[in-house]
């Protein structure tokens, strides 16, 4: 499940700088556990 979601975001040019601009609410729950 986590791998599938991560792969989808990576395809959308999920960059380190981009995730900072994206609100925590919009970010997937799986990203929270990575931090």
TrEMBL record:
Name recorded for this polypeptide:
Uncharacterized protein
């Amino acid at each position: 499940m986590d791998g599938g979601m991560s792969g989808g975001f990576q395809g959308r040019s999920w960059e380190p700088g981009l995730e900072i601009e994206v609100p925590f609410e919009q970010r997937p729950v799986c990203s929270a556990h990575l931090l």
